[in-house]
Amino acid sequence: MVLYMINSDFLVKNLGGGVVVFKNAISLDWDSVFDVAEMLVDLDSPSMYKPALDPETGEQVLSNKSEYIYSQDAAGEMPRRCSVAHQSQDDKVIKLLEELESAKDECLLHYFWEYPLAYKVVWWKVKGHFVSYSPTKGGLYLGVHSDTSADYAYGFEHPKQQLATRNSVSCLVYLNDCVDTEEELNGKNFTGGHHYFNYLNLTYKPQKGDILMFPSNYVAAHEVKTVTGGHRYTYLGWYAHGTPNQTVGEYVVEPTTNPSATNVYMPSLREDVIAFADKKDPSRTSFLHTLASRIW
């Protein structure tokens, strides 16, 4: 049985530039979570890419589920992902996902306290998916990027998938530890793989139970340094805004309509923010309370 606990005494560390780490925000049976994440990634990774043509050069490439294109070599250096976890019927997986989402949403309220105006650009959430950096020759990494990128150049067809352009706040839950030396590797941790924010000159060393939030736009452009040993696992999701446009792959539903949906509204968000702000400042003079209480 997997045990979960959202910690009430986690430490909030504002690193600046919109980057906040919530230290030890969630406790889990980490060995079991590692096994579940590994199982889900192994299940989904064979369908991660499909053959495609580069629209500019006509060359054979690979396209992922969001229709980003990669060369064969580049795809081999990318992390593996599981985007179908929320379709699982396994009670253990469902419970894990519920607790991960609850922990993320709790940290979001604290994030709003640090950056109140972020509240105005969160309308729905994109539930998380598992990301795996596993050992390969030379190690896996993720190059510099922002989480609002949807590659486009004038004169070419618009991208068919544009949900990323709606992202406001990115959120990562770290599922295992980064250690400093190969001697410390135990089969369920890793070396390397630090999260680096290029324009902010910030480095975060992953630790299990930590939750990291940051702006999805280019200001918080980031990369994952090469994983040099072991397996690195995270749970990655976003908080987004804007009116959904189904013609470019933006589907957002009420959470009770389809439990397996990943893009869902947050019906109680306003009330949750007001209650959180009132608890932090019973005098109701906080900027966050004003933002959430007022209809602009």
What's a concise summary of this model?
The protein is 21% helix and 31% strand. It has 296 residues and is of the alpha+beta class. It has one domain: q2cbj1_9rhob like domain (Jelly Rolls, Sandwich), CATH 2.60.120.
What does this structure look like?
- The protein is an alpha+beta fold and 296 residues long.
- It has one domain (4-49, 81-265): Jelly Rolls (Sandwich).
- It contains five helices and 19 strands.
- The protein has helices at 30-44, 72-76, 91-114, 269-280, 287-293; strands at 4-6, 11-16, 19-23, 26-28, 49-53, 60-64, 69-70, 80-82, 124-133, 140-145, 167-174, 178-179, 190-192, 195-197, 202-204, 211-215, 222-230, 232-240, 263-265.
- The strands form four sheets. Strands 2, 3, 8, 9, 11, 16, 18 and 19 form an eight-stranded antiparallel sheet that branches. Strands 10, 12, 13, 14, 15 and 17 form a six-stranded mixed sheet that branches.
- Helix 3 crosses helix 4 and helix 4 (269-280) runs antiparallel to helix 5 (287-293).
- The radius of gyration is 19 Å and the shape is globular.
- The N and C termini lie far apart (47 Å).
- The mean pLDDT is 90.
Instruction: Please report the total strand number as a whole number.
Output: 19
Report the uncertain regions.
Answer: none
> So, CATH architecture?
Sandwich
| Domain module tally | 1
State the CATH topology.
Answer: Jelly Rolls
Largest sheet: 8 strands, antiparallel
Look at the helices and sheets and give the structural class. alpha+beta
Mean pLDDT level: 90
**Helical element count?**
5
Radius of gyration: 19 Å
